Structure formats: C-alpha cells, structure tokens
Amino acid sequence: MAVNKCIKYLLFFFNLLFWLSGCIILGVSIYLKVSKDGNLITNESLPGIDLMIAIGVIIMVLGFLGCCGAIRENRCMLLLFFITLLLIFILLLAAGILGAVGETKVKDWVKQRLEKLTPLSNQPQNVRDDLEKLQRELKCCGLLKGPADWEKVPDSCRCNATDPECKSAGTYQEPCADRIISLMEKHMEVVLGIAFAIAILLIFGMVFSMILYCQIGRKESATNTANA
C-alpha cells in the first residue's frame, strides 16, 4: 500500500511553517532579552520573554522532527512528533483550566514577585528609574501599598488636579501591581484566542502525523509480506 503523497507533503509544509514560526519567535525573544529598553519591573512580574524563548526552541525542534519524519517516512520521528504534540496539547489544556479557575492565585503570584522589589528605597537606581517610567505610563504609584512604598514620593507620582485619576493629595494612589494585573486581564481574551488557534494546529498536526504513521506501517508490512 502506497503512502498518500498529499498527506505526506501537507504534513511536511505544515511543519516547515511550524519550524519557521519557531525561528521567528526565538529570534524576536532573544532580541527583546538582550535589549536594554526592557522594564525590569514588568520583566519581574511577567517573565514572558523567557517563556517565549522556550516556546520558540520547542517549536523549532518539533518542526524539524515533523519535516524529517514526513519527508523520510520515518515512523520513529513521526511517533515522537505525535507524542510531543499530544503532551503540549494536554499542558495547554491544563494551563487554560488552571488559568480560568486559579485567577486569584495568579494575582497573588504577581504580587509576591513584585514584593521582592520592596522597600523601593533599597533598590538600585536602574530599578527605581524603571518604576518611575512605569508610574508615568500607567498613572500609578508604588508597587503594593501605593505612595507608602516610597520614603519620598517621586515626581512621577504627582498628577494634575484635572486628571480624574488624581486624588486630593495630588498623587496617584493606585499601586502599580493593580495596574499590571488589570492589563493582564484585558489581554487575557487575546491570549486565550492564540491558545485556541495553537490547539487547533496541534490537533491537525497529530491527525496528519498519525495517518502518515499508519500508512507507512501498512506499506512496510506489505513490503515484508511480498518479500517473504
């Protein structure tokens, strides 16, 4: 029995795109990692760049396995590719469930990471500079307790009385941790949409790889029978 060429090359091109996507994610992530324009505060609370680097490497390895397995009709590579996709799909599903039911724990985790940066007066100058930049952008002050996190409230916490966010004391009162968590919640729908799209791609990859795996197995069995 011959292997379906359509499925074979469809799986190959699917994994070639998969591999190229991994290269792009890895390249962009490394650039952001070494860039000096990053904010230490957001990097501490949302360590997404390291996660993106790991995801880029995993996608590149998977794309390579899938391409080689498809074009060489290697059952071992295809099986390893299928198992890895299945594990990632299960982890993605588990992460989605945990994210939905453990929203409070995620907020506590972010605050615990930011708590390491207090008291602010003991932090290096570059950390304080990054926080002041964040305070201007998000219209917040301090990390967890508001202006009380500072020994001397910086100018970045000051606000114009016409600003609705400005309190009677002339400073922003909301801690930046609350602002960061609010940003997370606003972008959660986008993250869930991307995760859903990835899950669909994983399903297609698993289906095509298993179909090709079975066809190669039947082809090898037929060949062995004919040679016997």
Oligomer: single chain
- Structural domain tally: 2
Order of helices and strands: HHHHHHHH
Mean pLDDT: 75
Which secondary-structure class do the elements indicate?
Answer: mainly alpha
Low-confidence stretches: none
Calculate the terminal CA-CA distance, rounded to whole Å.
Answer: 16 Å
Q: Level of helix content? A: over 70%
User: What fraction of the residues are assigned to beta strands by DSSP?
Assistant: under 5%
Radius of gyration (Å): 25 Å
Described by the principal axes of the CA atoms, the overall outline is elongated
The count of helical stretches stands at: 8
| Main beta-sheet annotation | none
The total beta strand count reads: 0
Write the SSE topology:
Layout: H1 5-34, H2 40-45, H3 48-71, H4 75-101, H5 103-115, H6 125-138, H7 176-186, H8 188-227
Can you put this structure into words, describing what you see?
Helix 1 crosses helix 8 (188-227), helix 3 (48-71) runs antiparallel to helix 4 and helix 4 runs antiparallel to helix 8 (188-227). It is elongated and about 90 Å long. The mean pLDDT is 75. It has 228 residues and is mostly helical. The protein is 72% helix and 0% strand. The protein folds into 2 domains: 5-107 and 189-227; 115-182, Cd81 Antigen, Extracellular Domain, Chain: A. It has helices spanning 5-34, 40-45, 48-71, 75-101, 103-115, 125-138, 176-186, 188-227.
